[in-house]
Amino acid sequence: GITSGIHDIIPGALVTNNFDITYALGKLTITPATLTISANDTNSTYGNSPVFSSTISGYQFSDSAGNVLETLPQYVVLNALNDTVDPATAPAGIYTIVPTGAALFDSSSYVIAYQNGTLTIGSVELTVTVNDTSKIYGSANPAFRLSYQGFVNGDDASDIISPIAQTTADATSPVGSYPITLSGGSSSSYIFSYVNGTLTIDPATLTATATDTSRTYGSTNPLFRISYSGFVNGDDASDITQPLASTLADSLSNIGTYAITLTGGLSTNYIIIKNPGTLTINPALLTATAENKVKVYGNANPAFTIIYAGFKNSDDVTDITPPVASTTATITSPVGFYTITLAGGSASNYILQLFNGTLQITPAPLIVKADNQVAYTGDPLPTFTVTYTGFKNGDQATIISGPVFTIGGNPAIAGVYSLTPSALVLASPANYSITYQPGIIYINPKGPGTQKILVYLNCIDSLGPNATGFNYLAHFGYTNANATAVFVPKGIENNISSFGGFSQSQPELFLPGTGSADIYFNGALLTWSVKSYENITKQTSSASATSASVRCLSSARSTLLTENSDPSLFNLYPNPVTDFLHININAEEIEGLQVTVTDMLGKSSVPQLSGSGANVDLDMNNLRPGVYLVRLVLNNTWQVFQIIKQ
After folding, report:
1. In the prediction, which pLDDT does 599 show?
2. How crowded is residue 146: how many other Cβ atoms within 10 Å of its Cβ?
3. Euclidean distance between the first and final Cα of the chain, in Å?
4. How is 486-513 classified by DSSP, letter by letter?
5. Distance in angstroms (rounded) separating the CA atoms of residues 572 and 299
6. Is residue 158 helix, strand or coil?
7. Looking at the chain, which terminus has fewer C-beta neighbours within 10 angstroms, N or C?
C-alpha cells in the first residue's frame, strides 16, 4: 500500500503508431482513509454497568483493528445537558454514548471519525409490599408500613415518591380482615410492583365486673349489676350478649361474703373478661324488748319474757343466744316502777338491739273484813275484830292504828246491822290497795217478851241411791216468834248431832216467822238443838229424826223438797252494793228466773230487774242500808246470797 501523501505519477509504456508520446510527470495525492468508530446503541437498566461497544468501518485492504488501532476507543456517557454521567448510577433515561480516545499505529493512513451512540437506561422493578398489620376494634388505624424489594445503588424510600397505603376499615369497623391497598407513588428509575397487605381487626378487651353489693340476712338477693370497662365506638351493654351474674347464696344463707360469678356472655367485637364480685350478707336487725310486767307488791317477780321483732327464715329464739332479763326489784320492793334490763345475748345472723322494759309493782289488795259479831240487847257490845287478807312481808306488824268501826244502825235495838271497818293506818300505805268489807252484827232480842227459837221435825223421806250417799232426808222446821231475826252461830248453841253422819248444814239466821232446813242422814238418830233467849233466860229447843220417823206426804213436804242448791249457777257482785246488784247466770236458758229480796225482819219483795240474757241488774237504790237475803230460783235450782246494802 502507498501511504498517504503526494506522489509522482510517471507515464510510460504507451504504445502507439500514430503519435509520438511525450510523457510528463503528474502528481498523485493520497489522503488518509477515514476510519469511522460508531458507538453501538446500548440498553441497560438502572443500577447496572453497561458494556459499551462500537462498530469500526473504513478499514482498507486487509486492515483490521489489530494492525490499525493501537488503542481501542473509550466511552463517555453524556446526559441531555452534556454532562458526563456514570452509567451505572445514572437514572433511567436516554443518554449519548460518546466514543473517544482511540489511537492509530499509523496516523498517516487513517484518520478517525467518531459517531455517537445512544444509551437507553431502563427502570428497575421495585416491589412495594404493604406489611400485614393488626389493630384492636375501636382504635384508629395504625400507620401502615411498606417494605421494598429491588432498590439498587443504595437507594431507599427517600429516593422515591412512595405509594400510599389505604384501607376501607376505620375505627368503627367490626372485627375481621380488611385489604390494605397501594396506589400512587412515582420514581424515574423504578417501576412499582404492588403487593397488598391485610389489616386484621382483633376484638377489644371488655372487662365485665360484677358490682359488689350487700343485703341483710333473710332477705332475697338484690338485682345483680354488672359494670363494664372497655366499650368503644359508643357501644354499650345492648351491643353484646351480656353475661349472667349469679351466686350460691340464697335467702337462707348465713351472714358472710359470697362470690357473685359471671357466666356466659358473647360479643363479636370484644373478648369479655369476667371478674367476680362479692355479695355481703349483713346481719339483720333483731330487736329484743323486755316485755312490761306487772306484779303485786309482796309477790315474787314474774317470769320475765322477751318480745322479738325481726326474725327471718322461720328463726326463733332457739337460733340465738338470748339476752338475760333482770331487775333490781325483789319481793320486798315497794310499789313503783322498776327497769327490766336486758343484757348479753348474741346471734351470728343478727345485730341484737336491746330495749328495756318496766316492771310495775302495784299495791297488793288488802281486804279488811269486819268479823261477824253477835250481841244481845242490853249487853255490852263485843270487841270488834277484823280478818286481814293480803298482807305481805309481815307488814301486818306495821299497822300504826285502826281500823275503826261504824255500825249501820242502833245497836240498842234488836236487829241485824252492818259493821263497817275503815281508817286503817299503815307504815307504808302505798303498798296496799285496801278494800273494806263490812261484817254483820246481830243484835238478838233479850228480855221481856223475847221468844225462844222452836225447832221441830216435819217428816222424813226415804231415798234410793243418790249422789249424797245418804238414804234419808229429814225435813226440819223452825219458828221465830220474835219481830226480828235471831242469829245463833253454829256450835254449842246451834248444834246437830248424829250417830251415823249427815250432810247439809243447819241455818244460823232465823228470820221472823217459820223456816225450814233439810238434812240428809243415814237413819241413825239425828238431833238438831238450838239455844236462845226466852225473856232473860236461855232455853234449848230440840228435834230428832230416825229412820222410823214419820214419812212425808206430798202435801206435807216443804217447797224446798223440789229445789236444789247449785253454788255455780249464779254470781252476784258487788257486795256490799250501793245501787245496782249485777247477777250473772251460768245457764243457757234463763226463762222463768225468780228473784226475791228479804230483809232481816222477814219482809220479802220482788225487785225490779233490767238487762237481758245471762246478765241482769237488780235495782237496790230504794232499799235502806242493811243486810238482805237475795233468793234466786231457776229451773227448780235455787241459791240464797247474803247482801249488804250500803
Report:
1. 76
2. 19
3. 197
4. EE--SSSSEEEEESS-EES---SEE-SE
5. 28
6. helix
7. N
DSSP string, 50-85: PPP-EEEE---TT--HHHHEEE--EEEEE-TT--EE
Q: What cell was used for 273?
A: 373478661
Contact 320, 311 (CB under 8 A): no
pLDDT of residue 2: 61
- Rounded CA separation 536/336 (Å): 58
Q: What is the pLDDT of residue 612?
A: 67
CB contact at 8 A, 445 and 414: yes
Scan for cell 375501636, then name that residue: 138
- What SS3 class is residue 596? strand
Rounded CA separation 325/352 (Å) = 14
Q: Is the pTM of this model over 0.85?
A: no
Q: Starting at the earlier edge strand, list the strands of the sheet with 364-370.
A: 386-389, 364-370, 432-437
A 10 A CB-CB count for 405 gives 20
pLDDT score for 640: 78
DSSP three-state, residue 23: coil
Chain segment 575-620, per-residue pLDDT in tens: 888 888 888 887 766 677 888 888 766 677 888 777 766 788 888 8
b/e per residue, 253-267, with b = 16+ CB within 10 A? Answer: bebeebebbbeebeb
Cβ contact 84:74 at 8 Å: no
* Residue among 220, 349, 221, 215 nearest 286 (CA): 349
- DSSP letters spanning 249-313: --TTPPSEEEEEEEE--B-SSEEEEEE-EEEEEEPEEEEEEEPPEEEETTSPPPPP-EEEE---T
Beta pairing, strands 277-282 & 256-263: antiparallel
For residue range 204-256, what is the model confidence (pLDDT) as tens digits?
A: 999 999 999 999 999 999 999 999 999 999 999 999 999 999 999 999 999 99
Please count the residues of the chain. 646
Q: Which three cell numbers stand for residue 556?
A: 206435807
Task: Return the closest-CA partner of residue 424 out of 370, 346, 487.
Answer: 370
C-beta separation of 622 from 552 below 8 A: no
Written as nine digits, the cell of 144 is 401502615
Please write down the long-range contacts of 566-575, taking CB distance under 8 Å and 24 or more positions apart.
566/637, 566/638, 566/639, 567/639, 569/632, 569/634, 569/637, 569/639, 570/632, 570/639, 570/641, 572/630, 572/641, 572/643, 575/641, 575/643, 575/644
Q: Phi and psi dihedrals of 621, rounded to 5?
A: -60, -35
Q: What is the pLDDT of residue 589?
A: 67
